[in-house]
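Chapter summary example.
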Amino acid sequence: MVDVIITGDAGKIHAVYHKSADEAAPLAVVLSGNPHSGHHMNDRVSYAMFRAYMDIGFSVARFNYRGVGDSEGTIGTTADNMADIATVIDWIQNQNEESDRLWLAGHHLGAWYAIQAMMRRPEVSGFTLVSPDSSVSDFTFLSPRPNRGLMLLGAKEAEDSHAFGTHLTQILKKQAQIIVETIKIKEATEKYATPAELKQLYNDIKAYVGRENADDKLL
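The structure predicted for these 219 residues follows.
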């Protein structure tokens, strides 16, 4: 993996990129959580997601939104962060013109960004959502977009988080025809603070994405 600089609307976007030896390998972009809560591309969950896709054989990138770490600018709005996401997706696709599959992986607020980006990018083949931010309740951007994906929750997250996860899977199925498989990681909270919890998160992503991608079942 290498550090790369991508030119965005607010200046330089700092990213880490791994290119598969297979020129036609599927692509993945990892979206970290809310920067106002201290999330960034090198936090433990973002790195675990990155490594899972990398070790399956994907070409994958993770990055800091504007104003975070070495990315230029000031921390932006949802629209600003979505613009950065679009820039990184365009960049990785330009680097891998033989690839025709793209996955998105998002943690916390990044899970919402992944869903929104999927609505805008018909080439998205699948997704991974880790502990979606339950404070977000705007579903107006959803439209029919048949797809499949994985949601990971910590078994010891608050009951409200589990209830929200169930609600989100129902809304995605009803409004967007998206099927979500949910896995709860034993002993974990939304912070995934121990090596065992991160290892399980990593293994669950590898197993699900590897199976779905290999079987070519995604719509």
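To summarize the output: The CA atoms of residues 53 and 62 lie 11 Å apart.
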